[in-house]
UniProtKB/TrEMBL annotation:
Keyword Protease: no
Origin species: Pseudoalteromonas tunicata D2
GO molecular function annotation: exonuclease activity; RNA endonuclease activity
UniProt-listed PANTHER family: CLEAVAGE AND POLYADENYLATION SPECIFICITY FACTOR FAMILY MEMBER (PTHR11203), INTEGRATOR COMPLEX SUBUNIT 11 (PTHR11203:SF37)
Keywords assigned by UniProt, alphabetized: Exonuclease, Hydrolase, Nuclease
Protein's name according to its UniProt entry: Predicted exonuclease of the beta-lactamase fold involved in RNA processing
Keyword field contains Nuclease: yes
Length: 460
């Protein structure tokens, strides 16, 4: 029974993923305890990325506990900064999220160090010498604070504050986060998967709650039903016929594993020829082994995981990667990052974009300001490693393979809840998508939801 007596039990402040899809951070005050839900990096547009360097409006050592919805860097990648600034409390998340963060966070630290090195070598930083946002060592140190908990386990994470995680679909380990005390509760959707994802199960229904914070990445869009295997097969075959290479920039965690699986299915059904498949991302290779390990958390069988292993060439070292980039042959290559913001995929793009034989297929949401967004919107040239590269290759946006549900998935998920939330705050969307989500919630569920604004503080 949820009772309220007029007193303020909770306060919520939106420190990220408001007006944009990255930088997720929500500061919750409950029982006089300060809980941070998600601690993500901003990616994409420069104005947003600069916020990664701004001081949080709270002293990090005053935070009592941190909870993560899932491992993606735009939800976890700010943790090493918080550690660096003095946070030494626990970081609660699912076991899968912890295993993936063990891979993703040190890599993020490495990329930060590389960025600083690049800025120093090219002398374009305002600061001399340019310092990394954090280092590999900071990232490794903050992993010691992780405290994984089981799904559905009711855990007291601070005096009188309880946490329950439920499956959110999306990627391995992804959870909705319920936080509450005796009187009140709030649920954070994190990133929600779809009802018909090929490898992840549908998001689990939530219990009654007073407040819900819900994502809206695809608040203004519907996915076509996942029957796009034929479309994928046709696109691959057309590329091979031209003698080109089919490159998929993919998120190392989640979409890379889905595509590896689909390619094996297409080969087994003889819908595409038996050409080499390369996974050129050390992170994605490690993430694939985590998916194999947590095989109860997704739909892939042991045989399907083995088919991926047997049918994929894992490109581990930089030398192997360089060799692959210079090869000319029909092949499917999956490489990270998914929005072409960094990583080995940039070398492939530099090599493949200027030739109209090749195809570049983007697989999910491309945040504003990323190279991925520019390419799917028809850019005729893009900047890679300091030089402009002409875009001649075919560019495809395979939104149908996104790991996010569309607005109807979210509404249908809400309809399964024990009862509808009393208040809803919409986050994690570009402004038009979040506003469209607000309209859909009103039309279909009669709920007056509120689109959250950056730094807005609300009393619940
Ligand atoms: Zn995500």
């Amino acid at each position: 029974m949820l009772l309220k007596t007029g007193a303020i039990f909770m306060q919520l402040r939106f420190l990220g993923a408001a007006g944009t899809v990255t930088g997720s951070k929500y500061l919750l005050n409950i029982n006089n305890k300060t809980i941070l839900v998600d601690s993500g990096l901003y990616q994409g547009v420069k104005n947003y990325r600069e916020r990664n360097w701004a001081k949080l409006p709270i002293d990090e050592s005053q935070i009592d506990a941190i909870v993560l919805t899932h491992a993606h860097i735009d939800h976890s990648g700010y943790l090493p900064v918080i550690y660096k600034n003095g946070y030494r409390g626990a970081i609660f998340c699912s076991h899968g999220t912890f295993k993936l963060c063990e891979i993703l966070l040190p890599d993020a630290g490495y990329l930060q160090e590389e960025d600083a090195k690049y800025a120093n070598d090219n002398r374009f930083s305002k600061h001399h010498p340019a310092e990394p946002l954090y280092t590999v060592d900071d990232a490794k140190a903050c992993l010691n604070l992780f405290t994984p908990v089981d799904f559905h386990q009711h855990t007291e994470i601070a005096d009188g504050v309880f946490l329950t995680l439920r499956h959110a679909g999306h990627i391995l380990g992804a959870s909705t986060v319920e936080l509450g005390n005796q009187q009140d509760n709030i649920i954070f959707s994190g990133d929600l998967g779809r009802h018909d994802d090929i490898i992840m199960r549908a998001p689990e229904a939530i219990p009654a709650c007073n407040t819900l914070v819900v994502e809206s990445t695809y608040g203004d869009r519907r996915h076509h039903p996942i029957d796009s295997l034929e479309f994928l097969a046709n696109a691959i075959n057309a590329t091979l016929k031209r003698g080109g290479i089919f490159l998929m920039p993919a998120f190392a965690v989640g979409r890379a594993q889905l595509m590896l699986h689909l390619i094996q299915e297409l080969k087994q059904a003889a819908l595409i020829p038996n050409i080499p498949v390369y996974l050129n991302s050390p992170m994605a290779i490690k993430a694939t082994s985590v998916y194999n390990h947590f095989n109860k958390e997704h739909k892939l069988t042991a045989e399907q995981c083995k088919a991926i292993d047997d049918g994929t060439e894992y490109v581990k070292t930089m030398e192997q990667s360089t060799l692959l980039i210079s090869k000319v042959m029909p092949a499917i290559i999956i490489s990270a990052s998914g929005m072409a913001t960094g990583g080995r995929v940039l070398h492939h793009l530099k090599n493949l974009l200027p030739n109209d034989k090749n195809t570049i297929a983007f697989l999910g949401f491309q945040a504003a300001g990323t190279r991925g967004e520019a390419l799917v919107n028809g850019a005729t040239r893009i900047k890679l490693h300091g030089e402009y590269v002409p875009v001649k290759a075919e560019i495809l946006a395979l939104d149908n393979f996104s790991a996010h549900g569309d607005y109807q998935d979210i509404i249908d998920w809400l309809k399964q809840a024990e009862q509808l939330p009393k208040k809803i705050f919409i986050t994690h969307g570009e402004p038009t998508a979040s506003d469209a989500m607000r309209c859909h919630l009103k039309e279909q569920l009669g709920i007056e939801a509120c689109v959250a604004e950056y730094l807005q503080e609300v009393e619940l």
